[in-house]
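Sample intake sheet
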Amino acid sequence: MAQDFVNEPNGQAAIVAHADVVVVGGGPAGTAAAIAAARHGAKVSLIERYPYLGGLASGGMVLVLDDMTNGDEISVKGLCQEFIDRMAARGLAVFPPEQDRRASWELWRRWSRWGVHNFHAHSKPQPITYAAAFDPDGWKRVSCDMIAEHKIDLRMHSWFSRALIEDGRIKGVVCETKAGRQAIMGDIVIDATGDLDVAAAAGAPFVHGSYILTTVFRLGGVHTDAAERFQYGEPEKFQAIDRQAKRIIGGSWDMWWLKTPLPGVVWCNCPHMPGFDGVKVEDLTRAEFEGRRRIYALLDYLRSAPMPGFEKCFVVDVAPQTGVRQTRLLDGEYVVTKEDVTDRVHFFDSVARGRDYYTPYRSLLPRNVDQLLVAGRHYAATPAAQKISREIPPCMAMGEAAGIAATMALNAGTTVRRVDVKSLQAKIRAHGGDPGDQPAPNAKLAQAAE
């Protein structure tokens, strides 16, 4: 577009950037998409509403990377693994060595409070697996380093407002900023907002789902060794206190606290709160109040119980981002079903893997809008399927695939819908990822699709 502005319903929005690829959302999927596109030669603009990168990994403090192994096989690699390696080099990520990735009570006691065990195993003790506990600011630091290294145009403090569509093709986006409305133009746009903000605004069909919200928090001043000695040395007393703590917090996983790489600091992936809609302002506001009420009720109990190791604990912080798990879900060219995930269905156009499931490229493609890709927890899946396939590592793998696909479309002078999937799979694999082009022995082949 020749002009330096776009017309808005109530005025104009200044065009502040032109890019080959515009990525909206700087969470794990969006950051991966931006880096992957830049590594393949694209000029990239990355738009983020908050003053940090990482989304739910950092701002939401979801501080364990899991869902990345299929038995003994590591199924999510690529940029996710690079993030882990970079954080670990700074002492800000912890994961079990290969020799500890098995089942035994000794290893359970050593590793389970890091959250690196196989949650899906029915055996006791659950085996230790490849997963990583990390520090949220470590994630932000690595994200910023990699964005700077790849000379990506990062635009923080920019809230997506609307999609710019011309003849069924997305041409860019408009954002709300302190400087007024700003337009960022791009040949291809990747929606990595988590809530399908861009695709929904562009007119792509979607369904609306919902799941629990969580206000994650961290406690400091915790003597974790003393807490673990109490857990295993006095199991009946521990279980009584643990049960009451879960009642007070009002919803948590089996372990309501886990270790972090910072000494004396634990993270609590709770309270879980059903019945809230993650795109409603009123519900998000109520969730913040309710979450904090429960957090401080738990703190008072832990100090009075007393819970060994927690006698002098205090709240370090509450996640600045509410833990939203499911809202809008793309109704794309292929919609992944719960059976696809649980049966480990392998697709001919698989471009990303999770634990033992596969993500087809078609599930990243919106219908009715050209030159738009979707990457992250809002990909095309049924609500039931998304609940068990939305973890951070597979979302990063989707982002990496989308970023590479965008550059391929640009280089070939075609649309993202016409990208050669076999070539895309080869490029992902050549850069250290696992697109799932080679089905694992326990996969079920989707013969009809192939």
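Comment: The mean pLDDT is 96. The longest helix spans residues 281-304.
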